[in-house]
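Cross-posting from the chemistry board since nobody answered there.

I work mostly on the small-molecule side, so proteins are not my area. We synthesized guanosine-5'-triphosphate and want a rough idea of how it might sit in this target. Sequence and SMILES are below. Is it possible to get a predicted 3D structure of the two together?
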Amino acid sequence: MNTDADDRWSLVVPLKPLARAKSRLTPSAGARLRPRLALAFAEDTVGAALACARVRDVTVVTDDPAAGAALAAVGARIEPDVPGAGLNAALAHGARVVRRERPAARVAALGADLPALRPDELARVLDTARQFPRAFLADAAEIGTTFLSAAPGVELEPAFGGPSRLRHLSTGAVEIRSAGVDSVRRDVDTGEDLAAARALGLGPRTAARWLPVAG
Ligand SMILES: Nc1nc2c(ncn2[C@@H]2O[C@H](COP(=O)(O)OP(=O)(O)OP(=O)(O)O)[C@@H](O)[C@H]2O)c(=O)[nH]1
Ligand SMILES: C=C(OP(=O)(O)O)C(=O)O
């Protein structure tokens, strides 16, 4: 039973140091713009998540001081990474930190690379996720994962990385198949992904960095 009066979600967003983030964007964005775009994606993701009425707080797990400062300014709580342990350890750590303070928290992991994210679409995903102990949303390519949730009392068990859709299915998480959630599925790894996110509508920080360059 959830004994926490506040039933909203706590989101955990992982972010690699910007010097290494979004390496697959280098051919489209160039080496100088790539880290700035990676930060803009994260700022737009966190900004949209915090604008969602179902979200209580967003914890960004990162070891990048500049990104941490910028995302704290957007409203995120910043938690240091587990050195060298990788994405899933970072997510598990973020979820533990949230539940240390609020043991009955509803927790969900969300990629930092969703620059078209819309608060109303995230609300739709969260409302569906509430019905299951663990639930996830596949990325637009139907190969990876952009969102994974755990109800109060349930371990997150993140298994992100590459073809994680099947991995999350195999760990018993329920796949969310709702319509009208394209912006939550639209992660950006490549220039093609960025064009697809642009077609959905980029968030303000990404638009300001990318549109003057892309034309
Ligand atoms: N805190 C933390 N976040 C990570 C780590 N590895 C990946 N991430 C984040 O996990 C999310 C999904 O990773 P990817 O989509 O592969 O992003 P990426 O690693 O920046 O992209 P590539 O360099 O192109 O592989 C992104 O928000 C990354 O910043 C890690 O070791 N620690
Ligand atoms: C991290 C993931 O994939 P990618 O690196 O392709 O975004 C994932 O979808 O689990």
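Reply from a structural biologist on the board:
Welcome over. Reading the output above for you: DSSP finds nine helices and seven strands in the chain. The longest helix spans residues 33-50. Happy to explain the token format if needed.
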